[in-house]
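input
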Amino acid sequence: MNNGFNIDIIGERINPGFKSTKALFDNQDLPGIQALAVKQAEAGARYQNVNIGAQALTDPQWMARVIEAIQEVVTTPLSFDFPSRKVQEICLSCYDPAKADGELPIVNSITEHRWDLMDLYGRYKFKVILMASERVENGVAKGNKTAAEIYATARRGALRLKNDYGMPLDHIFIDMSVSAIIADTEGLNRSTVEAIRMIGGDPELKGVHMMGGLSNIGQQLPPKAADGSDLKHCLENAFLTLTVPHGFDYILGTPWRGYEALAEDHYVLSAYRNFLEQSGSNALRAVRKFYRA
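output
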């Protein structure tokens, strides 16, 4: 539970995309990485995502040391964020469920064109993050743009995991990509919100989790809204206000960044609803309403 939302956090900070974390990796500062893991755990992270960047391929032993060091100080289960089967196998072999209160790790992430990661299932047990943003069509990977495409990909992948591998539906996290509104002239936000409603309403998918990283949504927008509040955070909360009731229940994010439902008359929520109804140049004009009184 996080500030009024029935939502959990997969901690994102163990990632070289954050300058402070990159410095920890560059200096091979294990105590610093451990301190960051403890901070995320104490802030309520349900899982902690681990991504050490390119070093995972060039120095797999360092990656193993990172995983072991994290598990020395927290019992939070881990999510391993690498597209490589070789890297994922090293991560899974290092992970000790006994140090995470018996919880399985998460493989982040699989797609229809990167299904080979599931070859590891059986020798290892894990949960998965399934990307709903990409499908394979006639042997070619294609990005999903419509709600129907996103929903069909999510449904196909989740039922494949359930039927072919015996994976429980509550071990499946469907990653619903959240796009930046500043460049969204094709209604991608609208498609994502609609797809979440479709997945949440499908009885055959009851039990799956839906998740996403929200930091993209406010990219390149002014930091403050018309009332002086954090515009980007208000936008994240607007998205959650519309989607949490339909089953969006996990965020890949910073655990100490609080989330709460916006009141129906909150002007950022109203502006976001209006934005979702627009496309093309009208969508760009609607973006201005997010920071105008």
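quick obs: The beta strands are 8-14, 47-50, 78-81, 106-110, 127-131, 134-137, 140-143, 172-175, 209-212, 248-253.
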